[in-house]
Structure formats: structure tokens, C-alpha cells
Amino acid sequence: MKKSVKTAIGAGIVLVLGGVAASRVSRDLHKPPPPPRTTEAKRGDVSVSVQEVGAVQPVDKVDVRSKVAGRILVMPIEAGQRVQAGQLIAMVDRTLLDPQIQQTQAQLDQAKARLAQSEASYQLQRSQTKWAIAQAAAGLESARAHLATVAAGARPQEIAQKKQEIARAQIALDDALRTQARKQSLAAKGFVSQADADASQVAVDTGRSTLAAAQESLSLTLAGARKEDVNDARVAVHSAEVQLATARANSLQDAVRKSDIDQARGNVQQIAGNLSQLQVQVGDTKISAPVSGIVLKKYRQPGEIVQSATTGFSDTQSIVATLGSRLEVQVGINEVDVAKIRVGAPVTIGVDAAPGVSFAGSVTEIAPASTNAFADTTSGAAASISKFSVRVAFQKYDARIRPGMSANVNIMSAQRKNVVVIPLQNVAFTGNTGKVQVLNAAGKPEDRTVSLGLRDDTGVEVKTGLAAGDKVLVPALTGTRRTIDIGGGPDG
Prior knowledge:
- The strands form four sheets. Strands 2-11-14-13-12-15 form a six-stranded antiparallel barrel.
- The relative contact order is 0.18.
- The protein has helices at 2-29, 97-152, 156-189, 194-223, 227-250, 252-284, 315-318, and strands at 38-40, 42-58, 61-65, 70-74, 82-83, 88-92, 286-288, 293-298, 305-306, 319-324, 327-334, 346-351, 359-366, 387-394, 406-423, 428-430, 433-439, 445-455, 459-464, 471-473.
- The chain is α+β, with helices and mostly antiparallel strands.
- It starts with a helix and ends in a 19-residue tail after the last strand.
- The longest helix has 56 residues, at 97-152.
């Protein structure tokens, strides 16, 4: 009894379940199909970029060297510090230069004194020479005039003068004789003393002597110049000529004095030059930054000895520090991506020292040849991927960026803003055109040809064929995977 009941109940359950299943199948057969999956064409941005890792390097490196040798007193800089042109880099001890400057200054003062003395001697020598020449010339002129006078003999005027002297002497004698006769007569009568009579005789004698001398002078004058007098006058002329020649010869000493001045002046200039060099060296003890930049390396510390770069010492002995005026990122871009970038392209740069911070930059140079373009290929080594050196400049200096750091660069290759964009998976590509399916106004799928532009990893720009808001069908998934070129195309 129990067994038959259980069998009946089981059969009933089976019948009920079968009926339910049949009813559900019948309902599914009459249900409408689900609507197709779509995505909306939207306005947005499409960009293509190239990512690579490079190294931060200084653009320009300037080695700062000391021009003087000595011990460094102070060096108020540190590696990584930014300095301005003219800022103090180091100060070298000038203790050894100060005594040299004092000694050279004393030598210069002495040389100037000798120059002044030489100039004074020269002026005195010139004055004496001029005076001696003028005096000798005047003496020669006088001697020549005397010779001419002696050689010419007596002139009529001189003869007349001599005759007048005789006449005056004769008159004086006649007067003396009359006086004598009168006084002799008076003395005989006792009216005058004998002494007065004798005095009158003296006057007579004197008159006769004067008359005789005048007559002799006239006789000599009439006889002409004596040969001895002419010879004496000629000797006097010769002597005067010798004196003039000697005075003129002495003027050659002026040139000697002038050469002394030139030598003394040259000595002054030489010592003054030495002093100027020492003063320049004193200025060179203050080592300043020749350009603005970053201290890339500091080679010396206060108390260390530095050599002069002007005396042939090596760079390692004279160099004090190295500055870098600007920083850039040098990065190698493979041959596939290098065609996508251009000079001036914007770049975002990241460094590990500033996580989460992006620094703006731009491409400044793209090498025309790859790094292995001139490599030796005769060895048979396997060819590697060619890379091109690209230089990226920072737009602004930031103290967190240091030379030698690694940098992640993102070079913007191309970008389109506010354009119609659809997902890549929704397009069947044929070059720069494609096929999509859209829902028409009736809600029915229809094929449409579209013109394509820039594309990135996920989306593509639609130039023509679609408008923002159009519904684009999403293709059904298949076992076949499509490979899509995400390059920039002719517009990228």
C-alpha cells in the first residue's frame, strides 16, 4: 500500500514539472529578441604620445678654474646649488701677492723718479747746447768782422780822423809854447816862481810827445794793416769756427739724453705692466661664476691648494667647480616611434624625486641619424633596434631636478580636441576610412562609411559620417581578434 502511494505521488510531480517546463518553452518562443548593444558617438579628445625613460643632463657645462695658485680660504657653494653670474665661487689667499705688489710699487716709484731726472737733464742739456752754439756763432761773426776790418786797411774816414788828431795835438803844442815863453819872461822879472816856469816846460814836452804820437799813428794808418795783424785775425776766426763746431758736436749729447729718457720711460712701462698683472692676480683671487647655472660638482674645500690654470697645470689641479647653465633630458627613441614626434612637441616629464609631479618641457632636437648608424657591421653581430637621440628641455627650473636623475618622458605626438570619437572596436578599418553600423531613425541597424582621423589606444576620431549623439552598434564578440593600427595616420 505504501509503495503504490509513493509511486503515484512521484508520477504526479513529474507531470506537474513537465507541464511547467512546456509552458516556459512556449513563452520563450514568443518573446521578442533583446535590443542590440550600442555606444554613443561623443565629443572628446584624442591624443597619441610616445613614452620613454631618459636621463637628466646639463646642456652646457662650464669648468671654473683658478687663474692664481694658492690656498682656498672660503668656498661658499655646494653641489646642486644654483648660482648667478658673478656670484662668489671661491676666494684664494692673496698673502703671497701683497709683498710682491709693495715691492713692485716701490720699483715703479724709483723708475718714475729716474724718468723725471732724465727728462730734467735732457732739458738742461738742450738749453746749454743752444746757449753754447749761439755764443760760438756770435764769436765767429765778431772774429770774421775783425778780420775783414784788418784786411781792408784804413778807410778815408780813419785817415781824416788821424789828421784831425795831429791838428789838435799841434794846436795844444803851440798853446804850450806860448805859455812857456810868457812864464819864462815873467820869471826873469821875478813876477812868477821858477817852479811855474818849469811846469810850463813840462806842458810843452807833453804837447810835442802827443803830436809825435798822432803823426806816427797817421803814418801807420797810411802804411796799411800789418801781416801779423791779419794772421792774428785769421787765427781768431779759425778759433771761433772750432768753438762753434764743438758746440754743435755737443748737441749730439741731446740724442743720448733723449735715449736715456726713452729707456727710463720703457722701464716705467714695464714695471707698471708687472704691477698691473699683480693687481689683476689679486682680482683673480676672487673666483666668480662666469655664468648662471647649477653647481654640478665641487672639486675643492677651504684649506686645499689650487694651482693656476694659466701656468700649464692640468685641469684637475686648477679646476674649482663645474657649473651647468641649463638642464635637459636626453632620451633614446626607437625607430618605430621617432617618426611620430617633432621638434617643439610638448612633453611631460616625471622624476622619482618628485612623485606625482609632472614637469613641462618640449622637444628641442631630434638626431638625424640613429645611435648605431655608423656602427661596424662587418663583425656579423646581430642588428639591434635603432634608437635616435632626442633632447627635451625643461620649461622652468626646479630645484628638485638634479643632473643624473632618470626621467620618464611622455612626448605628445599629436592631439585632436573636441572631435567626434568612437571606440576602436566599433570600426571595421580600411585605411583612413571605415565601416560602422548605426541605428537609424526607425531604430534599425544600417551600414555607414566614415572618414577617420587620429586614433589612440582606445578611440578614433571620426571626421565625417557620424555626428555626436549617433548610436553606433557594438560588434558581437567573436573568436577572432582584430589587430588595429593606433598610429596617427596621415593626420597624426
